[in-house]
Structures are given as structure tokens and as C-alpha cells.
Amino acid sequence: MTAAGATAMFTIGELAKRTGLPVKTIRFYSDEGLLPPTDRTPAGYRLYDTTALARLELVRTLRELGIGLAEVSAVLVSEATVAQLATRHVDALDEQIRALTLRRAVLRAVAKRGSEPEEVKLMNKLASMSDGERKRLLDEFWEEVSAGLDVDPDFYEWMRSAKPELPEDPTPEQLEAWIELAELVKDADFRRLIRGMSERHSTARAEGADMSASQAQQERWFSWNSTAQAALDEGVDPDSARGRELAAEIASTSAPAGRESTDPAYRRELAEQIAVGIDPRAEHYWRLLGIINGWEPFPSRVAAATWIVEALRASAGPAA
């Protein structure tokens, strides 16, 4: 019991009761110099005053925040402030959170796909890429699929300019989309698909075709696509009056000089021109890029475009 006016003193056991910390832990802090005793009893037992009690509470708080003993000691001897330590640990925690978020995205994708060990290693490598590495991967992809071809430079530069831009704190969905996009552009079949589209583009340019789509042309195509999607949603068959009507409009608007829009051969050619540009994987590339970059989602147009192709083929009738 403390005499009136005297400073309150506590044994290690009393500190343990007041703080809820184990005696063993308090003794360890004391032995490490983080909590030197204020005094000792005649029998040599350590005693601590209220200042030591406050010091112990600070040590406990810093340790619970994951701060190491050496850093705690630096604070206690005024070699570093709590604010400085907090700043350093916030940065470290941010890095840990980013790493854990990446790990979670990989594990979610692994669970979803039932991946084998080799694929897991690849996915982890893809998720850990830097911004520069991600952009280089897409640059290499577009270089490969257009190398040596006479393609519209403005169009392909626009295609190449859309790069994956993961935010500082990406969502699991964004990371999963990046892993899938990286796998897609590394896939040999997908590269052949886009290379084939580029070759047809190059051939058409060499033959004098105007490969640049005007604003009016783009708007017309979106209108036709919307009309086809509405028919598709209603269960209307491409080989129907509505299908023939849309096919006639598309053929009439698209027919170049010297070609008759009602010619079955022309309609079949037009159908094939549209068909070669339809592939769910090409659309999926842009959908994944949109998820990564946080773009507004856009509806799939593949099914409607396929309906248009079938309508044109049906309107042309069977080949002779």
C-alpha cells in the first residue's frame, strides 16, 4: 500500500493485472530494456511507477501494430517519433495488402479453373507483373500480329494505344481479368486469329479498299446490330421477312460501284466478309481490357452480328 503523497509503485504481477499482459511478457520487455524498473524492493523485486505503466501501454500498442522491438526501442529513446514509425508501417502494410490481394486473385482463379501446378506458377507470375511489363506484353502482341503487313497505321496505333492500367488498389475482378488477358494474348491460336484478320485487312488495302470507317458507317452498323439483337431476343429467325428486310438494307448500303446489291453472289461475299471479323475471343479481349481499366461495360455484339450473317446468307439463297 502506498503512503499518502507517495508515488504509486507496482510489481510485475500488479502491472499484469492492470494491463492484461502476461507476467512473462512484461518481464521480457523489462529484460530487453523497453521497460526498465523504477525501483526495487529490499528483496530485489522490480517495481514500476505510473510513468512505467504508461510506457508499457505504449509498448503493447506498438507491438500489436506489428512494430518490431528495435523500432519500439527507438521510439522510447526518442530516436524516432510514433508518427514516423506509423508512416513507415503504413507503407509496409500497403505493400503487404497489394501482395495479399494479388495472391487472393490468383487463388480465386485457381479455384475457379481447377488449375494444375504449372498453370498456377504462370498465373502468379502474370499477376505480379509491373505496369511496364504489362504494357510491353501487349505491345509485343500487336507487333507480332501486324508485322510486315500494310495495315492502316492510324487504326492499328489506336488499337495498340489501349493498354491495361491496373489501379493502385485493384479489385480481385480486375486482377483476374488481367491474368486472363495476359493468357489470351500469349495464346498461339488467338495470335493466329488476329494475325489472320490483319492479313485480310492488308489485302483489302492493297486492292484499294477504303478501310477507314466513317462516323456515319459506324452508326449504321450499330443500328443494324441493334435491329438484329432485337430480332434475336424475340426469337425471330434470320430466314424471315425481318431478316430479309435487314439483309436488303445492309447489302444496298454496302454495295460498291459496279456491284448489284440484289446479286446473290455479292450477298454471300458480304456475309463472309462480316463473318471473318466475328469471333467471341476478339470481343472478349476488349471486354477484359475494359474490366481492368474500369471502363463502362458494353453489351456483346457477336450474336447479333452472327444473326446478320445468317440473314444475308439466307437472302442470297443456296449457292449454285
TrEMBL record:
Pfam families cross-referenced by the UniProt entry: MerR_1
Single annotated GO MF: DNA binding
Keywords: DNA-binding
SUPFAM superfamilies, per database record: Putative DNA-binding domain
Organism lineage string: Bacteria, Bacillati, Actinomycetota, Actinomycetes, Pseudonocardiales
Protein name as annotated: DNA-binding transcriptional MerR regulator
Originating species: Amycolatopsis cihanbeyliensis
Superkingdom field: Bacteria
Residues of the HTH merR-type domain: 9-78
InterPro entries found in the cross-reference section: DNA-bd_dom_put_sf, MerR-type_HTH_dom, MerR_fam
SMART domains xref list: HTH_MERR
